[in-house]
UniProtKB/TrEMBL annotation:
Residues 5-156 form the PurE domain. The keyword Amino-acid biosynthesis does not apply. Catalyzes the conversion of N5-carboxyaminoimidazole ribonucleotide (N5-CAIR) to 4-carboxy-5-aminoimidazole ribonucleotide (CAIR). The gene is purE. This is N5-carboxyaminoimidazole ribonucleotide mutase. Coiled coil: none annotated. Keywords: Isomerase, Lyase, Purine biosynthesis. Its EC number is 5.4.99.18. Pathway: Purine metabolism; IMP biosynthesis via de novo pathway; 5-amino-1-(5-phospho-D-ribosyl)imidazole-4-carboxylate from 5-amino-1-(5-phospho-D-ribosyl)imidazole (N5-CAIR route): step 2/2. It comes from Sphingomonas qomolangmaensis.
Amino acid sequence: MAQAPLVGIIMGSTSDWETMRAAADMLDTLGVPYETRVVSAHRTPQRLHDYAESAASRGLKVVVAGAGGAAHLPGMVAAMTHLPVLGVPVQSKALSGMDSLLSIVQMPAGVPVGTLAIGAAGATNAGLMAASILALEDSALRDRLIAWRTQQTDRVPEVPA
Ligand code: RP5
């Protein structure tokens, strides 16, 4: 039987999947079960409400939310759940993701969103950070995470080829 998802990867549009798949790839690499959903703050507000309200009771431990432009998804989810929310600013066409970044990062005191870098690097790191949070209570995952980090370090040559 498949393991129940611990991380919810949500995004404002299917067009965000190209970026957000980097978070999913990282969780696959580290063996962390996750689910993926398209949840738009503007186009599907009821879906957003239902997702955020039920996330904790369904067993999710971390939400990774990616959106672009007027990127209200991570903040709105954070407003409705006590779970840690990691926000990924998707690179927009008009403003190269600066709009996404500023929409996500500048939350009012009391409603935190852990904001990552714009684009795929941010999505990868959101996956890693979600795994780090889960690894606090999961020693096998902690070992896989440490092994992944060691491999990354070992791949860096001292001299440029
Ligand atoms: C946001 O608008 C989405 O997160 C996406 O990044 C952006 C564009 O969405 P589409 O017009 O491609 O559906 O809500």
